[in-house]
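Batch job 17 of 40 flagged for manual review because the log was empty.
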Amino acid sequence: MAHAVVVGAGIGGLTAAVALQRRGWEVTVLERAASLEPVGSGLAIAVNALRALDTIGAGDEIRKLSAVQGDGGVRSAGGRWLARTSTEAVSAQYGDSVVLLRRAQLVDILVARLAPGAIRLNTAVTGVDPATGQVSALENTTGNAMKSATDAVKHTTDAVGGAAPAAAGTAIELRADLVVAADGIHSPIRGALFPGHPGPVYSGTTSWRVLVPAEGVPGQASESWGAGGVFGIMPLAGGVTYCYATDVVPAGAGGGDQLAELRRLFGRWHAPIPALLAAASPENVLRNDVYHLATPLPAMHRGRVALLGDAAHAMTPNLGQGACQAIEDAVVLAHVAGPGEGPADDIAARLAHYTAARLERTWKIVSRSSSINRATKIRNPLAVRLRDTLMALASRLAPGRVAGAADDIFGWRPPAA
């Protein structure tokens, strides 16, 4: 039986693990965190990702978790609708809609589909050899040991591995026919595979995410644009609303009371934003600087190693496609990898088809998301007014054209089995 090692137990890594397992592969997932407690936030699973999840038998279970959604769209900071979307129209055009749910729920669904013992927590990868599929790692690592393990991968060259700095933990070696690098935006494996690539760059925006107990607070799915800021509202099932926001601030400027900062920035925007922020708790607010890959990789694989999700094409969140594209990657990779009944001696040749299927598509989405990010960063009052006017006119005069702009994203279909 062919063996795959997946580095990283995020949504992309877990989806890849499930998809490969369903193809008959033995799968080991290595996760550096000590637990799988996911980030406390919401997630939008668009129709393209739902189709991908259908191929691993998870789509219908996820659809059942979505709250009932009304129409939504984009608003100004004062509440004027700039562009409207109809859930009925989206469903009619694409045969499905968008599921809004907690990230933790999707993680639980994926983990439940993996074989017992497939996930090895508290395990930091220290080296990957793309030629042989040899994976070196430290188990039961904490604190400085985790940093040392990451540094060991960052500072290696051709073999993407090497002697790790002295660190506490148990050294292990795994041999894999396929290594899936799903180790995130700042992927050490990507940096070692492609040392000449510039890596992620700061988008100019910081994001906040918060789950709000919002029983009695009216609201519908929408995203509001102001002068340099964005505030999004996603009602979830169970009387919870997921809110997200971005603003133009220097990188590394976090610290202090982030809920107070959100109230300062957005507390005077249209209803129900002030009420949602009033109902939020400071301990539930997450803040992260937004980085993305501004330059495409030369390939999404090297040897026996495939890059997936943020490790391959980190994007700004403006299209809501980050997790969706990672899910797409995962099912395409499993399809290309083929059945796992025997050793995958030709996996490097197969992975060339993975790059061919995914690199151009994901880069177009990265670029489009980055363009929207630039539009949201406009601060000049006259430029903001012009931007909003043009958006409203486009939505009013050519609604079909605006809706059709998403065809190449939502119209994607997974490869046939």
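Reviewer: the log was empty due to a logging misconfiguration, but the result itself is present. Residues 3-57+107-200+293-373 form a domain with the FAD/NAD(P)-binding domain fold (CATH 3.50.50.60). Unflagging and moving on to job 18.
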